Amino acid sequence: MIFRKILTSLIVFGFAAEVWSHVEIEAEDYFFPLEPVINFCKMSEQCQHDFVPICGQDSLGITRMFNDNCDLYEYNCDEKKQYRHAKMDVCKYEAAAAERTFNE
């Protein structure tokens, strides 16, 4: 009887471990957990492009250059990301690469 309970428990734990090992937790699920959810899709629909380049940064510190605020909103909407406007100094490497490409 005890052997049967131990065997059943091991089987249950084995299945639980197998299921848990296949659970993928994406970083996007934990972006800005204390901030309200922003509807970037709605913001991108109402936005007027001004083509003033901006720097965007996500909660992991990944930076990216955008054509303007509307481009940032559209990218967040399409890619399910949470980039926020950051100082241009943060994107100094991306800005330098864009300038080299523009000048060539």
TrEMBL record:
It comes from the Eukaryota. Residues 1-21 form the signal peptide. Residues 35-93 form the Kazal-like domain. Coiled coil: none annotated. Gene3D superfamilies: 3.30.60.30. InterPro entries: Kazal_dom, Kazal_dom_sf. The lineage of its organism: Eukaryota, Metazoa, Ecdysozoa, Arthropoda, Hexapoda. It comes from Loxostege sticticalis. This is Kazal-like domain-containing protein. Keywords: Signal.
